[in-house]
Amino acid sequence: MAEITAALVKDLREKSGAGMMDCKKALTEANGDVEAAIDWLRKKGLAAAAKKAGRVAAEGLVGVAANGLSGAAVELNAETDFVARNDAFQAAVSTVTKLALDTDGSLDSLKAAAYPGTGRTVADELPNLVATIGENMNLRRVAKLSVTDGVVSSYVHSALVPGLGKIGVLVALESTGDKAALADLGKQIAMHVAAARPEALDVADVSTANLERERAVLIEQARASGKPENIIEKMVEGRVRKYYEEVVLLEQLYVIDGETKIRKVVENAAKAVGAPVTLTGFVRFQLGEGIEKEQSDFAAEVAKMAG
């Protein structure tokens, strides 16, 4: 019996795209022969993932889950929107999202988590899902929020099934007050986040690079007015405040009434909740954001096929 080394398993995994445990089993069955192991994996349908790995996966689903003091959001991508309606894919996203609740919130931690009923990790289960469904997939990102005393609320915009859709939001609220009232507030703010697309929780959290870029644009716009420099400075500061109202959650106007800042909404909620409330964090995942999708030219493809 040949020795199945870690290097041999790694080599087979890179060549086949199959999971680590499946590669180890294949090598055992093939007595260490990599080519025979590839054939074994192909017969089991587990090497199919390698052929699909180069395809752009920008569709799929965002999943969110919350259990009171914690919440998690996950994005699992596939190649087509059709897969998002596949029962097996939906079950996988739901399972992985719930597993994320018990991780440290990192992608590595989630990939290393045990996938229920398989004896494999999440990372090693994905190739099996690819082989079953027939599309390249990518566990793209995960985020987790927790509170000490309060509630983490979740919301999915236009959910396909509970907890799964194209936009998922988590909102963390700290308070010793009534948890049911706090959860209702969290849900309302999460709906706001889905619609308003904030980039930062507070002014202090705004990216310095983004702020400087915005300020440079505003300065040039103000100078085009021909006003004196002291007036330009005031114009820029006013426009920076407007910028904060667009990108900072606590400075945004509540979409439900269009006039109250989220900061004030949270402050006013203390009466209904029965104790002061602090909004400590939020997560907003929108499916495929930031992924560069391939643009196909159907006419050119047909012409190429026709020679």
The portion of residues forming beta strands comes to 15-25%
Secondary-structure content class: alpha+beta
Secondary-structure element sequence?
Answer: HHHHEEHHEEHEEEEHHHHHEH
Shape: elongated
How big is the Rg? Answer: 25 Å
Give me the side-by-side strand order of the main sheet.
Answer: 5-2-1-7
Please summarize the sheet with the most strands: 4 strands, antiparallel
Total DSSP helices: 13
Uncertain residue segments: none
Word description of this protein:
With 307 residues, this protein is an alpha+beta fold. It is 46% helix and 19% strand. The protein has 13 helices and nine strands. The protein has helices spanning 6-16, 20-29, 34-43, 48-52, 87-100, 107-112, 122-133, 179-196, 208-223, 229-247, 262-268, 270-273, 298-306; strands at residues 59-66, 70-78, 114-115, 120-121, 138-146, 150-157, 164-165, 167-174, 278-286. The strands form three sheets. It has a four-stranded antiparallel β-sheet. A three-stranded antiparallel β-sheet has the order 6-8-9, covered by helices on one side. Helix 1 crosses helix 2, helix 1 (6-16) packs across helix 3 (34-43) and helix 9 packs across helix 10.
Describe this protein with a few key phrases:
307 residues, 3-stranded antiparallel sheet, elongated
List the helices and strands and how they pair.
Layout: H1 6-16, H2 20-29, H3 34-43, H4 48-52, E1 59-66, E2 70-78, H5 87-100, H6 107-112, E3 114-115, E4 120-121, H7 122-133, E5 138-146, E6 150-157, E7 164-165, E8 167-174, H8 179-196, H9 208-223, H10 229-247, H11 262-268, H12 270-273, E9 278-286, H13 298-306
Antiparallel strand pairs: 1-2, 1-7, 2-5, 3-4, 6-8, 8-9
Helix pairs in contact: 1-2, 1-3, 2-3, 9-10
